Amino acid sequence: MQIKVNLKENAYQVYIDELENLEFNTKVFILSNPKISGLHLKTLLSKLKAQEIFIATIKDGEEYKNLSTLEEILNQMFNSKLDRKSILISFGGGVISDMGGFAASVYKRGIDFINIPTTLLACVDAAVGGKTGINNSFGKNLIGTFYQPKAVYCESEFLRTLGERELAAGMAEFIKMAVIFDKNLLDFIESIDEKAFLNARCENEIFSKIIAKSVELKAKVVEQDEKESHLRMLLNYGHTFAHVIENLTKYSVYLHGEAVAIGMNMANRLALNLKLLNEKECDRIERILKKFNLPTHYKIDNVDAFYEVFFMDKKNSNQKLNFILADSLGKGLIKSDIDPKDIIKILKEFS
Ligand code: GLY
Fold first, then answer.
1. Ligand 1 binding pocket mutation candidate from 131, 141, 217 (most atoms within 8 A of CB)
2. Whether the CB of 235 sits within 6 Å of ligand 1
3. How far is the CA of 236 from the centre of ligand 1 (A)?
4. pLDDT score, position 315
5. How confident is the model at residue 319 (pLDDT cuts 50, 70, 90)?
6. Of 97, 132, 161, which one is at a domain's C-terminal end?
7. Residue 156: which residues within 8 A CB-CB, separation 6 or more?
8. pTM, two decimal places
9. CATH of the domain at 229
10. Residues 227 and 261 in one domain
11. Does any ligand 1 atom lie closer than 6 A to the CB of residue 129?
């Protein structure tokens, strides 16, 4: 299956379970991590032909998505003497696609790159849409570019080696899409056999449907608002809280999707308070998150400190906090006029 992300001169295809032969008349630089390359590099190399192939691996984990790893990647690209026609392939999860895309966007003012995501989270979200970047001490993804890949190849086969936590983390981003865009998807999610899914033993069609639905929805959003000035902000549902949690736990306690799961539950409690969601809807989403063993609570030690970190969020403008909330099931909303007292009240519920 193929889904087009129609961005005029930057348009590209997302191929789902269609990775055949890739042939390039240039140098190719594969960015991966030791785990993924150990499991799947042989498969990728068997499908890849290029003038010369370079392989670079970086440490696995969100805590390494930083300036010093970026420098390591760029040094390896220079050592490989890549030119402006060379192609970078990001082969891994969201950390790899974010960093690979960023390195490609700044190397000699930009070279082409392709995403071959190997986690569910990267297939349903990170690898599509051209957000690239790194974290720093001020917050998550605060340094980066909008730079679209030339193609994305999502292969269900690569997802079969994922552990429970990684699959659940990918599911969290899919639940996000359902809550803000498509209520019917919640019924589908509820119908999934969670044991088979979390053991990566579900039918191939389940993975393909999750990826295809997410990519279809995301492509429509990105086509209308590539640089996130309005509609694309909705994709950050749950993320405003999640980014604070990830920052305060130094990116080393929760997988990104797990933090998003907690963030969605926090956002829902705020939405409940503002009468956008009712209790039944809030509880339904929490039940779905729990079905996939996702965390829904984080103990806030210092409410004021937590609140302060919100102000580093990229969605803010004029020092106003923008929250993405569910406005009934299947519909998202950007709220920029929430009384700080209402926000603090919810944070206190989690303290
Ligand atoms: N991950 C949210 C976005 O790509 O906009």
1. 131
2. yes
3. 7
4. 73
5. confident
6. 161
7. 16, 17, 204, 207, 208, 211
8. 0.93
9. 1.20.1090.10
10. yes
11. yes
Indicate the residue type of 90.
S
Ligand 1 binding pocket includes 125 (Cβ within 6 Å): yes
- Phi, psi (degrees; rounded to nearest 5) at 318: 50, 40
Show the tokens assigned to 259. 């933090």
Of the candidates 161, 170, 172, the residue with the CA atom closest to the CA atom of residue 199 = 161
pLDDT, tens digit, for every residue of 156-196?
Answer: 999 999 999 999 999 999 999 999 999 999 999 999 999 99
Indicate whether 141 and 240 sit together in one domain.
no
Are 127 and 229 part of one and the same domain?
A: no
Same domain, 66 and 127: yes
Pocket test for ligand 1, best of 218, 223, 231 (most atoms within 8 A of CB): 218
- Beta-bridge mates of residue 89: 30, 114
Pick the residue whose CA is nearest to atom 2 on ligand 1. 235
Residues 121 and 188 in one domain: no
Long-range contacts of 101-105 (CB under 8 A, 24+ apart): 101/130, 101/131, 101/132, 101/145, 101/147, 101/149, 102/70, 102/132, 102/133, 102/134, 102/143, 102/144, 102/145, 102/147, 103/31, 103/70, 103/73, 103/74, 103/77, 104/132, 104/147, 105/132, 105/145, 105/147
Structural domain boundaries, residue 330: 164-349
325, 335, 342, 343 from 274: Cα distances, Å = 10, 10, 8, 10
Q: How far is CA 318 from the centre of its chain?
A: 26
Q: Whose CA is nearest to atom 3 of ligand 1?
A: 235
Q: How far apart are CA 215 and CA 127, in angstroms?
A: 10
In this prediction, what percent of the chain has a pLDDT beyond 70? 100
CATH code of the domain in which 85 resides: 3.40.50.1970
When divided into structural domains, the chain yields a total of 2
Q: Which residues are the active-site residues?
A: 109, 131, 173, 218, 228, 232, 236, 239, 243, 256
Last residue of a domain, one of 161, 180, 208: 161
Is 71 marked as binding a ligand? no
Strands, E, within 39-126: which ranges?
48-49, 52-57, 87-92, 112-117
